[in-house]
Specification:
The chain has 3 helices and 2 strands, in the order ααββα. With about 100 residues, it is α+β, with helices and mostly antiparallel strands. The protein is flat, with a radius of gyration of 17 Å.
């Protein structure tokens, strides 16, 4: 059953988003981060989420508007998001397979 679900979502993401590098694991990664944050490395950055315009998902919003500058503090005018950039992949899959078993 698990392989069927992974295959289904992998095919759907490939067809809809041209995501060809394997099935999506974002939910699994989220739970793993909550329970094992030391498996991840990231940095604090400023992230804006566009909710008012109909922008294709692959286009950055700065193409359509004003480029803003932000300071180096934490908050609305500075860094507001932890962006995860790397993962201890082997350890992640060990945890995932242990949960499946």
């Amino acid at each position: 059953m698990l392989s069927s679900l992974i295959a289904y979502f992998g095919d759907a993401y490939q067809q809809v988003f041209s995501f060809n590098d394997g099935p999506p694991l974002h939910n699994t990664l989220t739970i793993t981060y909550v329970s094992n944050p030391t498996l991840f490395q990231g940095r604090h950055l400023h992230v804006d989420v566009e909710t008012r315009r109909n922008i294709p998902w692959e286009q950055p919003s700065w193409i359509h508007g004003v480029i803003k500058t932000y300071d180096d503090t934490w908050g609305a005018n500075g860094k507001n998001c932890l962006v995860l950039e790397s993962l201890k992949v082997e350890m992640f899959f060990n945890i995932l397979l242990n949960c499946i078993n």
